[in-house]
What we know:
- The complex is a heterodimer.
- By secondary structure, chain A is an all-alpha fold.
- Chain A has one domain.
- Helices cover 73% and strands 3% of the residues of chain A.
- Chain A has a two-stranded antiparallel sheet.
- The radius of gyration of chain A is 20 Å and the shape is globular.
- The N and C termini of chain A lie far apart (57 Å).
- Chain B is of the alpha/beta class.
- Chain B folds into 2 domains: 232 residues, 3-Layer(aba) Sandwich (Rossmann fold); 148 residues, Response regulator (Rossmann fold, 3-Layer(aba) Sandwich), CATH 3.40.50.2300.
- In chain B, the strands form 3 sheets. In chain B, strands 7-6-8-9-10-14-15 form a 7-stranded mixed beta sheet, sandwiched between helices. Chain B has a 5-stranded parallel beta sheet with strand order 2-1-3-4-5, sandwiched between helices.
- In chain B, strand 3, helix 6 and strand 4 form a beta-alpha-beta unit.
- In chain B, helix 7 packs across helix 8.
- The longest helix of chain B is centred in the N-terminal third of the chain and has 20 residues.
- The radius of gyration of chain B is 23 Å and the shape is elongated.
- Chains A and B meet through helix 1, helix 5, helix 10 and helix 11 of A and helix 4, strand 7, helix 9, helix 10 and helix 11 of B.
Amino acid sequence: MTLSEMMNIGLMQGFAGLSLFAVLLLMGLGLAIIFGQMGVINMAHGEFMTIGAYTIYLSSVAVGKLAPNFMPYYFPFAILLGFAIAFAAGWFVEWALIRHLYKRPLDTLLATWGVSLAIQQAFRTFIGPKEVSPTLPDWLLGSWAPSPGLDIPINGLFVLGLTAVVTGAVLLALSKSRWGLRVRATVSNRVMANATGIDTKKTDRLTFAIGCGIAGIAGAAFTTIGSTGPTSGSLYIVDAFLVVTFGGAASLLGTVVSAFGIAQTQSISEFFMAGSMAKMLTLSLIVVILMMRPQGLFASKVRR
Amino acid sequence: MAIKRDPSNLDASRRRLIQGAAALPVIGASGMAFGQPTASVNTTKLAITDTEVTVGQLHSSTGTMAISETGSIQAEQLAIDEINAMGGILGRKIKVIKEDGASDWPTFAEKSKKLLINDRCAAVFGCWTSASRKAVLPVFEKENGLLYYPTFYEGLEQSKNVFYTGQEATQQILYSLDWAQKEKKAKTFFLIGSDYIWPRTSMKIARKHIENFQKGKVVGEEYYPLGSTNFGSLMNKIKVQKPDCIFTAVVGGSNVAFYKALKAAGITGDKQLLVTLSVTEDEMTGVGGENFQGFYSSMKYFQTLDNENNKKFVAAFKAKYGKDAVIGDVTQAGYLGPWLWKAAVERAKSFDVDKVVAASPGIELKNAPEGYVKLDENHHLWSKSRIAIGMPDATFKVVSESPQLIKPDPFPKGYQ
């Protein structure tokens, strides 16, 4: 193996780690808002992602039938649609269920788990039990080869870009917007925030819906990587909770760092050992670190 | 329940009636259609009446395996409908009791008890994963039931009470490895599988064959957790090793992610030889023709097989389940189950499990969609192996076919 080949493998391996980082971050982001900021253990997070994924699939079917010429361009619009539908679903679930359970965190766990089962069965009944993948526009397929022997996956680049945009937007919104201000106020002291005239109920609903909407975006983006089935959500949920818990529940920055750490550990160890072993090593490391730092990497500085 | 409504005196009178009928040459023919007396074809209190025989169907119609098992459920039902349209078996129509294993192995065991003990089913068509088969096996052996199992699987099993209508590991693996070596001059192999019993056993056999018989080299062997969608590092490992042939058994949702990752890493069918044991037409709908184009799949059946039996089968299947329905290897194997059972029952002239089992070896099916198959003494099928290349429109084109039927060998010597 020549030096340039080794360079190429190194570069591609670096990118593999980065793209796994993007995937984990996108998975964890919506949950970090819901679980981290609101303290709601949302077991249906994976299903909100699946809603986004199915939106892409159904859009691709609809576009393929009604307007085949639009095929190369539908994807970004379908992602927005995925956000909108997951947002609406989140809004509805919060209104119908979650708002009655804020003071009973363990009950929200059970209730949202019920929601996740119900959504799964709805997918199975109305869309079908088979796993599906949307027809992706050609520009999302294949690899970008800047030099011979160096192939950078285009879907990886796309997910990476999307994650950067979404994460940036969320961080910006939390620190600069009125909504962010209200969320932060509500998180640090609900009663006081209420007293100053912040409608905490409305803030809760909006926050939950935004978290679900981001889950929808994540699901939509993952259709470029894997397939979508009624139970796909249950594959994502463990990783999502892992990232958020490891990062420190109340810190968005923690989520970013934790996603990066987990992704790099896994990707690098995968290169040198078998896939299942690498996963085991990563999980053991996380367990050890969580034993030493139960609050996660970035402990919340908020006094409770 | 049907057993209690079958008191022997009633049977005796019926027998006299039939004997009387048979004595009359004029209505002798209709006596044949009427069938033999129930008491003589059923000595073990199975759920059989003069007009009906009850069988069970035990698959997952819910849960994660529903994706795969739906095809088997449909194909078995189609075969049963066709047999009923022909007049049934020994003059009796087949009645099906459907149970849902719900992708949960203990549920499979429980439902198999129900089908055998409560419903007294004469035969059961069912199971898909090896795990579900292993869960019901003790029940079938204890209650002396009869199971027709449709999936290609890892071998290393043979039970008096089970007939395996899919390929066992050596039929599928050895032929494809030899093909890769002879036709494609492959010397180095990279083995990849999902992390559970079937891929691991299959790859163990593959490794022995490559190293001991082909004198080739295995340059990598990797297993990824079921459902894993992260194959970025694996792609780079493949690029480091540059194998002549990638040999895979990745299943379920991982399958789609795996082929998408290959495509995204620039490892495509025009540059790299890849042979898989786990992509049928069912998986293709998810993987997508554009991602599998130019790769090879090793199966005994493909929907595009060009023979009269298959044309009829495909047409009947699509007429019943819609024109978009696809038929994979296991679906076809599921279709064989009821026909094999029918042939064995008719040869045994009895529904008794022991007699059906005794009559089964040597049964031939000339109307099988895959061509012609024969049941071996070891309860597996003699069948041809085929290699097909994936086309952009998500169909397969057969490029190689074993000249002879391959003998099933569930306990291969030198591969343990």
